Amino acid sequence: MPQITVDYSAALEEDFDRRGYALALHPVVVETTGARLPACKTRTRRTQETVIADGGADESLIHITVSLFAGRSEEAKAALAEAAVALTAGFLKPGLPPVHISAEVRDLDPSYRQN
What we know:
This protein is α/β, with parallel strands linked by helices. It is built from two helices and four strands. Helix 1 (18-33) runs antiparallel to helix 2.
């Protein structure tokens, strides 16, 4: 069931292999949390404007959110967040200005439903 959202700065449009990242992340989610591969779903969202600190630097960001049914340990969630961040660099073109990469793994609200 993992619902994965990857928000990224518009400046990374041509420099971030989003599909490749999603396909590499799905097995990591399975290994780390016991989710099923067919249940992994990733969507990417380009942010129109990204402002970091005082807005003066030529920097970008990527933020990954993984939402799961409750029941995973805090250790498993932390391990997945760390792995999601570490995996990202391999899908960015080399030589880019700084890219701030972060991830969070959270439980879905009990009201979540799917068909």
